[in-house]
Amino acid sequence: MKLLKDILFGVSLTAVSGTTNCSVNAVCFDSRKVRIDDVFVAIKGTLTDGHKYIRKAIDLGAKAIICEQLPKEMVNEITYVEVANSNSALAIMASNYHGNPSKNLKLIGVTGTNGKTTVTSLLYQLFKKAGFKVGLLSTIKIMVDSTEYKTTHTTPDALVINKHLSLMNDAGVEFCFMEVSSHGIHQKRTEGLVFEGAIFTNLSHDHLDYHKSFAEYRDTKKILFDNLPKKAFALTNIDDKNGLVMLQNTSAKKYTYALNNYADYRAQILENQFNGQLLKVDDNELWTKLIGHFNAYNMLAIYATADLLGLEKLETLRWLSELDNVDGRFQYYISKQKITAIVDYAHTPDALKNVLETINTLRTGNENVITVVGCGGDRDRSKRPVMGNIAGEMSNKVIFTSDNPRTESPSEIILQMEAGVAPQHVNKILAIENREQAIKTACQLAAANDIILVAGKGHETYQETNGKRVDFDDFKIVTEVLQSLNK
Ligand SMILES: CC(=O)N[C@H]1[C@@H](OP(=O)(O)OP(=O)(O)OC[C@H]2O[C@@H](n3ccc(=O)[nH]c3=O)[C@H](O)[C@@H]2O)O[C@H](CO)[C@@H](O)[C@@H]1O[C@H](C)C(=O)N[C@@H](C)C(=O)N[C@H](CCC(=O)O)C(=O)O
Ligand SMILES: Nc1ncnc2c1ncn2[C@@H]1O[C@H](COP(=O)(O)OP(=O)(O)OP(=O)(O)O)[C@@H](O)[C@H]1O
Ligand SMILES: N[C@H](CCC[C@H](N)C(=O)O)C(=O)O
Ligand SMILES: [Mg+2]
């Protein structure tokens, strides 16, 4: 049990009814999960309003209510606290509840449209190699040093974040690398966290269903930098046209990285092959197993971060050369007949273009590139025709299929992708709703030396339709099918 007034420390209160000098059990923002003596935080969400469930929370045992508007009828013995913003209150309360764990380690946030999982996961790997105890909060998993936890979000809610940071404190973790999504910033899941540094990877089309405009999406990402403390570092990619925007209002120490512009950290691609690329970083050569122009940026961001956190440069380069690809990011299998199957989490236009560009630069003859791709349901619709067109333009054959249709009709999503394909590429397109069948067809169509790209789901091990998730693993399916076809 903890004192409510201690948990509320730093929260901006606008009215209080009852006492805050009372003990509460846990903080909870979902009435369905309230237990006896909890404090319930009512949040206005995207689908419903938590204020509607205040009474239900009390019936289940909530002792205190945090809300943006006090209810008309108040129950005796219950403490009601009105706050300016429930999301902010929840984040600060979550941090207080767990003893402000972000202050006891060096927390680095990574934001940007693409590359967050890659950069955070590789920083985690690198700092482990350097002998530190490390934490990771990523799309794929949460790591408390060597202990793995499952996650549901790229940036989980404030309670989940702080709970795991607190476990990291218990385990003696010194550095934690976390993905900071635009949803996470907008819903204030990261408020109240003390960052040692923040990294910006890039900004391109995504989530325009949620953010309404590109400017709003960009400005949301910028908040991570605006809120950094003075002693923190702000590291940005200035080859991206929004790179400098991130630094405009930060009081942190500013650093830049780039391949094409003058910057504090610079790299050059010397060689690019299927099994790796050679980079020149700070006059030293670095061989990395991760390929593609975009991974040169990721590598450089990691190198710069390691330097800013005090690691020795030459040692960092050695460790960087040992790092392996992250699951579902350019993960490949080469079959008997030298058909290459690549599984990649490219689910944005820019990522799809980058991956296909990388594949095309690696082609040595007239091998065909066969792309299997879909777009998520209940997510940004405007990226569908754009991704459809990129796939059509940059591949020899394309199979449009389903990628987590959620509550939407898979065939409708495919039609929207097809609508973007330029007329001269329409004859390359097939539509096969069933993703397994789509992958099988790609394997059947592939001849020796061809390249199959299965894009959009990467590490995911499910297909989600109407709220139900069934097991589905692109990499497993494509390798098994190629083997069974004896190709
Ligand atoms: C659109 C979105 O981001 N929604 C997130 C949001 O839920 P919401 O605002 O829709 O909540 P709501 O259903 O309207 O409910 C409002 C409030 O009423 C409460 N409630 C509701 C019902 C009830 O009976 N009782 C009750 O108390 C809810 O607990 C909530 O507090 O807050 C929830 C709690 O934190 C999140 O789980 C949920 O993520 C949903 C599941 C989601 O799919 N989010 C994705 C889009 C997302 O966040 N993705 C990002 C970025 C991806 C990337 O680019 O990497 C991520 O960080 O994962
Ligand atoms: N620096 C980069 N620039 C552009 N594209 C990238 C970059 N890094 C990775 N990608 C592409 O984007 C895909 C997703 O990469 P990653 O998972 O690292 O991004 P993310 O930002 O974590 O995505 P999410 O928003 O889903 O969490 C990769 O599979 C690859 O195709
Ligand atoms: N982080 C991304 C994941 C998309 C992955 C794709 N497979 C899908 O389900 O749409 C998002 O929330 O938009
Ligand atoms: Mg991610």
UniProtKB/TrEMBL annotation:
Its cofactor is Mg(2+). The modification N6-carboxylysine is found at K221. It holds the Pfam family Mur_ligase. Keywords: ATP-binding, Cell cycle, Cell division, Cell shape, Cell wall biogenesis/degradation, Cytoplasm, Ligase, Magnesium, Nucleotide-binding, Peptidoglycan synthesis. UDP-N-acetyl-alpha-D-muramoyl-L-alanyl-D-glutamate binds at S31, T154, T155, S181, Q187, R189. Residues 328-458 form the Mur ligase C-terminal domain. InterPro entries: Mur-like_cat_sf, Mur_ligase_C, Mur_ligase_C_dom_sf, Mur_ligase_cen, Mur_ligase_N, MurE/MurF_N, UDP-N-AcMur-Glu-dNH2Pim_ligase. It catalyses: UDP-N-acetyl-alpha-D-muramoyl-L-alanyl-D-glutamate + meso-2,6-diaminopimelate + ATP = UDP-N-acetyl-alpha-D-muramoyl-L-alanyl-gamma-D-glutamyl-meso-2,6-diaminopimelate + ADP + phosphate + H(+). Meso-2,6-diaminopimelate binds at R379, D403, N404, P405, R406, G456, E460. Its main location: cytoplasm. It is found in: Cytoplasm. Residues 25-94 form the Mur ligase N-terminal catalytic domain. Pathway: Cell wall biogenesis; peptidoglycan biosynthesis. It comes from the Bacteria. ATP binds at G112, T113, N114, G115, K116, T117, T118. Carboxylation is probably crucial for Mg(2+) binding and, consequently, for the gamma-phosphate positioning of ATP. Its EC number is 6.3.2.13. SUPFAM superfamilies: MurD-like peptide ligases, catalytic domain (SSF53623), MurD-like peptide ligases, peptide-binding domain (SSF53244), MurE/MurF N-terminal domain (SSF63418). Residues 110-305 form the Mur ligase central domain. The keyword Nucleotide-binding applies. A motif (Meso-diaminopimelate recognition motif) lies at residues 403-406. GO terms for molecular function: UDP-N-acetylmuramoylalanyl-D-glutamate-2,6-diaminopimelate ligase activity. Belongs to the MurCDEF family. MurE subfamily. Catalyzes the addition of meso-diaminopimelic acid to the nucleotide precursor UDP-N-acetylmuramoyl-L-alanyl-D-glutamate (UMAG) in the biosynthesis of bacterial cell-wall peptidoglycan. This is UDP-N-acetylmuramoyl-L-alanyl-D-glutamate--2,6-diaminopimelate ligase. It comes from Maribacter chungangensis. The lineage of its organism: Bacteria, Pseudomonadati, Bacteroidota, Flavobacteriia, Flavobacteriales. The gene is murE.
